[in-house]
Write a structure and sequence with these properties.
Largest sheet: none
Strand content: under 5%
Radius of gyration: 12 Å
Number of helices: 2
Order of helices and strands: HH
Distance between the termini: 33 Å
Helix content: 55-70%
Length: 55
């Protein structure tokens, strides 16, 4: 199933955010209540938008 965040899945930003969230989940510091892909995609989208605004 396609999502609005598919474009980010091949980026370094996605990889970093995904790994970081996984570490937090593994350490019981974070509980994911929605899909991992949605969380990571949303954060990638927000960060990319912020970086574009600062240019």
């Amino acid at each position: 199933m396609r999502t609005p965040y598919d474009e980010y899945q091949v980026t370094a930003l996605w990889q970093i955010i995904s790994e970081t969230i996984n570490e937090l989940v593994d350490n019981d510091d974070l509980e994911e209540l929605t899909t991992h892909e949605h969380i990571v995609g949303y954060l990638c989208s927000k960060l990319e938008g912020r970086m574009k605004d600062e240019k």
